[in-house]
Specification:
The chain is α+β, with helices and mostly antiparallel strands. The chain contains 23 helices and 20 strands. The strands form five sheets. The protein has a seven-stranded mixed β-sheet. A seven-stranded antiparallel β-sheet has the order 12-13-18-14-15-16-17, with helices on both faces. A two-stranded antiparallel sheet has the order 1-2. Strand 5 and strand 6 form a beta hairpin. Helix 8 runs parallel beside helix 22 and helix 10 packs across helix 12.
Length: 705
């Protein structure tokens, strides 16, 4: 039998098992309700006058509840059809009495006439049992993806009809789903293995969609990639967090105030509101993309003093009790899943392994369940409203891979659940008032490896302080708490986005002569606050003669970018290796060679940013495995160069043209997506798409599978 046939039979079998499970669960709840009512109500009993054992009472309750359920399923539709001509108000009153009559009949099936009840009490019991069974059935139904998708479509359709929107423009809409942190190779393996980890997306590959990789900038993280994709520029975004000497502030991409400032700078630089400015919607992102419809977006959180706008997505979603039940059940299951998986990892002695206790299970559940469900529901609503473009970020994989590793079994399970979310959105497209093209992409990949401190015993801060001849008093704040992205999103959802003492602020305290060391995955940034502007190599050598030898001689450090007053931007590496970026001259072993083609161009571009740190430190990378050393507490990391983190994916419909030249830098995706969203003459669409500008078209091979 063909693989598709086997998959369909398996799916049908799983669906049948779920249906049987729902029936049994409803039966158990109805039986328990019947037994409880018999214990509470004086005019109702389900045991013999001499008393019964708990087992006998349970059996009697199960028989009575089962008989009531069967009669309700078989007889009730006939009664309703027979009473269709009865006025509605009269039928409403008859419902209770008819339901009570069915219960009286059902109790006749109990052994030895144990079920005794007065007619008036039977009406009350039947109403309570029906309510309990209905609540249970509804709760279980919303756990079924197909039923849930249809329900979202109905709700969104009603909202669209009430809104009375004007006629939609001709042409299809586009939904961009960002699978945060999923590298090209990880996705390819998930789609081509047998059976595929993501069966829905695997069915698209080679038929309706095409998979290509793209290369990030040096800063391979969501902030740099997403602001470039949505706003066209990630100029002066050197890392996930960095220190700005002119203001004395630490910028953090997922902090609402920082995200708002970065978006303002990008709009000022490009002169464009963003990719989604024309009838678009932004869901669960760091930046708005210029969309009027935004929910769970960090950059808009500071626009309203009460933070009502970014939280409106949560309110809209949880105002529906069925949504609340579905997400609450999944949230609890995810907390239990994380506890079991972290325990299993400790038993297996997996390496690398980081701490996953404390609040992390709840933070993971928030990122992988709450944010996912709210974003998916919002995207479905946008499609049913007929919006032209929607961009949503699903962060589940990235959060789990940070703690379990990008190739771990935990992360692979998340891919399967993301596939279900994609299927829900694709199914909902059938109910939309216009056709939709679904584009999947990632903002970066992840590279595994032992943490820098775990491998060598010292944090990057301690190594820097040693090179500066400072005492060990700088150990404070060396270990950054895990779950930073999920923690920031949760704080925003709870209306507490920037309250409390931040670790980044604490790192900037102390004498101004001491260096500030920040980490962004396997990229470290060192700044000397008392040196105006960008510190030069010559000045640092006079001030801390041992610093550069200590850094470049460390086995966990791959290279260091520093500005030389005489030679310009300079990359220094192990064994005296040097790479002059301005001239291309290399002395000794090229420090950038292990990081592949395009590394020199990416580093040179970052050197031009006004807020590039005095020293940019990239960890070492194993050229065979792609393993790196995160300067944070992360089993899977991204933020610098090295390994799969620089190679995300783009899975696009085959009818959307992609240039033959490699896609390099997140800004190239903004240009490409802008062309996709711009209505063009059909004859013009047949002309080949021009290649990206030579200044950004750096050498990297684009494979197609």
């Amino acid at each position: 039998m063909s693989e598709p046939g086997v998959s369909r039979r398996r799916a049908a079998g799983r669906s049948a098992l779920r249906a049987v499970g729902r029936v049994l669960a409803v039966w158990m709840v109805a039986s328990a309700t019947l037994a409880l009512l018999a214990w509470v109500l004086p005019d109702f009993r389900i045991e013999s006058p001499h008393g019964d054992s708990p087992t006998q009472i349970a059996v009697t309750a199960a028989i009575g509840a089962g008989a009531f359920g069967v009669l309700s399923a078989l007889v009730w539709p006939l009664l309703v059809r027979a009473l269709l001509l009865v006025p509605a108000l009269v039928l409403g009153a008859l419902v209770f009495f008819l339901n009570g009559s069915l219960l009286l009949v059902a109790l006749r099936f109990t052994p030895d006439g144990r079920g005794e009840v007065t007619p008036a009490t039977a009406v009350v019991i039947a109403a309570v049992m029906s309510a309990a069974s209905s609540a249970t059935s509804t709760a279980l139904a919303v756990r079924d993806d197909a039923a849930y998708g249809r329900r979202l479509a109905r709700l969104a359709g009603r909202r669209r009809q009430r809104a009375g929107d004007p006629p939609l423009p001709a042409g299809p809409g586009t939904v961009f789903l960002q699978l945060d942190g999923v590298g090209h190779d990880v996705l390819r393996d998930a789609l081509t293995c047998s059976p595929p980890a993501m069966p829905t997306v695997a069915g698209w590959l080679g038929s309706t969609h095409r998979l290509v990789p793209w290369r990030t900038d040096w800063s391979s993280q969501t902030g740099a990639s997403q602001i470039a994709i949505l706003h066209g520029s990630n100029h002066d975004v050197p890392a996930f967090r960095w220190y700005e000497k002119d203001t004395g502030q630490v910028m953090v991409c997922n902090r609402p105030s920082s995200a708002a400032e970065l978006e303002r700078r990008a709009v000022a630089r490009t002169g464009s509101a963003g990719l989604l400015a024309r009838d678009g919607a932004s869901r669960g992102n760091l930046f708005s993309g210029g969309a009027e419809q935004s929910a769970l977006v960090m950059s808009v959180a500071v626009r309203a003093g009460t933070f009502s706008r970014p939280r409106s997505g949560y309110f809209a979603y949880f105002s529906d009790p069925a949504n609340a039940v579905r997400t609450a059940w999944s949230f609890c299951a995810e907390v239990v899943r994380e506890i079991m998986e972290s325990t299993a990892a400790r038993v297996r002695r997996d390496r690398p392994r980081i701490k996953r206790g404390g609040l992390y299970p709840m933070l993971r559940a928030f990122a992988t369940v709450v944010e996912r469900d709210v974003a998916v529901a919002a995207v479905v609503g946008d499609m049913l409203a007929g919006r032209s473009a929607v961009y949503a970020d699903l962060v589940a994989y990235d959060e789990v891979a940070h703690h379990s590793g990008p190739r771990s079994r935990d992360a692979r399970k998340v891919l399967a659940r993301l596939d279900r979310s994609v299927r829900l959105i694709a199914d909902a497209a059938r109910y939309a008032p216009r056709p939709y093209r679904i584009v999947l992409l990632s903002d970066h990949g992840q590279s595994g490896g032992e943490t820098f401190e775990g491998a060598y015993g010292d944090s990057l801060r301690e190594v820097v302080r040693t090179g500066c001849g400072l005492a060990d008093g700088g150990r404070r704040g060396a270990r950054r708490r895990s779950g930073a992205e999920a923690r920031a999103a949760a704080r925003s959802a709870l209306r507490r986005p920037e309250r409390g003492r931040r670790a980044e602020e604490a790192e900037c305290e102390g004498p101004p002569s001491e260096p500030i060391v920040l980490a962004s995955g396997n990229l470290g940034l060192v700044a000397f606050p008392d040196i105006p502007g960008r510190a030069t190599l010559e000045e640092l050598e006079r001030r801390c003669p041992d610093l550069m030898p200590v850094l470049t001689g460390h086995p966990g450090i791959g290279f260091v970018l520093v500005r030389s007053a005489e030679r310009g931007p300079l990359v220094l590496g192990p064994d005296g290796g040097e790479h002059e970026l301005a001239t291309g001259r290399i002395k000794g072993r090229d420090p950038l060679a292990p990081f592949g083609p395009g590394a020199a161009a990416a580093v040179l571009r970052t050197d031009t940013f006004p807020h590039t740190a005095d020293l940019m430190v990239n960890s070492a990378c194993d050229p065979e495995t792609g393993a790196v050393h995160a300067f944070e507490e992360q089993a899977g990391s991204h933020g610098g160069l090295g390994g799969p983190q620089s190679h995300p994916f783009l899975l696009h419909p085959v009818e959307l043209p992609v240039p033959d030249a490699p896609l390099t830098g997140a800004e190239s995706l903004h240009t490409l997506f802008g062309r996709w969203l711009t209505p063009v003459d059909p004859r013009a669409a047949r002309r080949p798409l021009p290649s990206p500008d030579e200044a950004t078209a750096r050498t990297t091979g684009a494979s197609v599978i």
